Amino acid sequence: MTVQDIARIESEVAEYWGDVRHVESASSTNTELLASGEPGHVLIADTQTSGKGRLGREWEAPAGASLLMSVATELVHTDDLGLVSLAAGLAVTDVIPNAQLKWPNDVLLNGKKFVGILGEIDTTADIPLIVVGLGVNVAWREEELPTDWSTALNLEGIDIDWDEFTIDLLQALGRRLEQWQDRDESLLDDYRAVSATIGRTVRLDTVGGEVEGVAGDVDKQGAIVVDGISYSTGDVTHLRPTD
After folding, report:
1. What gap in Å lies between CA 71 and CA 5, rounded to an integer?
2. Cα 142 from chain centroid?
3. Which band of pLDDT confidence, cut at 50, 70 and 90, is reported for residue 1?
4. Is the peptide bond before 104 cis (omega within 30 degrees of 0)?
């Protein structure tokens, strides 16, 4: 099962997204939208042959198991790009209220990841773009999950109508990315409210090595603040008191 009525989806999200396309297969929805998209364009694919994750990782999913989607919006400022993927993760929590966010943009249910997010920019286009890709695990078999800390909506007892979910998510993405464009401070306040990382003891793997400490906040650029120091990139592990 995948999205069915693209014309309806496009009509329902027209306030934010003027062009919604659906293809059976894409190399990567991010790559293809960066190559040919414009602000307000959306590309949805049933499968990806070269899906991308954060930090150069691959993203793989069986056909029909995930909502694979990228959206393009105008790159209006670049000093806080870290907030863009945070805004996208927050949009998912608007649609799935029990979800939480692990910095920077892993979306969790019951402590397990069910959404991956990747933002990429093109400053050479006539209108500079930022493209945000999302892979939402919707209907997976447990034995096919890529890691033991992954999950899917169906495995958490959440059944969706694909078209309705896509409409709701695109509308939420439109609102949250507009907040980023407008430098709306409530975006970070809302992020903090659903963060599973802030207040936790964490291990942060950075290019300069490992850092352990308490994640006290996320700053105005979207960087995580560990023991008073901001870090813009890295992988976070939530530590138990005995770790």
Report:
1. 18
2. 22
3. low
4. yes
